[in-house]
Amino acid sequence: MTPECDTTNPGIDANDQKIVNLLYEGLNDASIARHLGVGHRTVQRKVQRLMELLEANGRVALGARAQELGLLGNTDTDH
After folding, report:
1. How many angstroms separate the CA atoms of 54 and 34, rounded?
2. Given CB 3.0 to 4.6 Å as the disulfide criterion, which of 36, 46, 66, 75 pairs with 17?
3. pLDDT confidence tier of residue 35, bands split at 50, 70 and 90
């Protein structure tokens, strides 16, 4: 995985966008981890960091905030 910085959303890289999109599609942490080839705890930590970064107090709020910022659908999730 090679993260590319998204200059419109500082601190959100391509891998973060993939995680947000996969969460929005309804995948759980374990499924996202398998899909991205990383550990389950890595996904949990990244989701927590994204919630803090985007000031979202939960996963639903994270999805809503990501949608507001135009983060959804910005990357190919290989489906």
Report:
1. 24
2. 75
3. very high
